[in-house]
Amino acid sequence: MARSSSGIVAGLTVAALAAVGFLAFQASANVPDTLGDKPSVSVPAKSSAPKAPKAPKAKKDPNALPAPSGTGVRVVYSLGADRVWLVGAGGKVKRTFAVTPGTVDPAAGTYAVTSRTGSAPGSDGTQIEHIVRFTLSDGIAIGFSAAVNGSTDAPDPEKKLGGIRSSRADGDAMWAFATVGAKVVVVR
To answer: Which keywords describe this protein according to UniProt (predicted)?
Structure first.
């Protein structure tokens, strides 16, 4: 099936914006509380003993699997990072990708895939494929899907939508990985 280059460009643009936003959040979370404060008047006495060099801080990989995400074969969905990990046997990440959440989020917790649909119109009217549902929230079905047109645009904030959209390629991977009964772990 041929895919338009505009869909690929749109998907890459969304992924890039998500990565930049996440990195900006990480940078703001690491700003010292004293940044911008005036230096204190007292200056500590200098020690004659040489100081040991500080070990460089390990930078956290934004694509790294969240620590509190369960065990075993599972799908991990981070509400805060808008990212999914497909975790295989032995805790090995098989794939990770950015997603665009709906307007209704699931609660953090462990779920199982309850149903799958190959293709259908989404609640927003967009034709979607590879729909993998795992819970309901306020009567709204929550699940992963990909728009047939490749769109990962943010949903209308005025509507209650539970679709968690990915690119078509990532939707294909989710479809192959998450069969009915598969574990889905939602983390903050």
So the answer is: Signal
**Is 108:164 a contact under the CB 8 Å cutoff?**
no
Q: Name the β-bridge partners of 143.
A: 133, 163
pLDDT band at 31 (very low <50, low <70, confident <90, very high): very low
Domain 5-27+66-187, CATH among 2.40.440.10, 1.25.40.10, 2.40.50.320, 3.40.50.720: 2.40.440.10
Cross-strand bridge partners of residue 136: 141
Q: How many CB atoms lie within 10 A of CB 170?
A: 23
Q: Which positions ≥6 away from 75 have C-beta within 8 Å? A: 84, 85, 86, 87, 113, 144, 174, 177, 178, 182, 183, 184, 185
Task: Please report the pLDDT score of residue 164 as a whole number.
Answer: 96
pTM equals 0.67
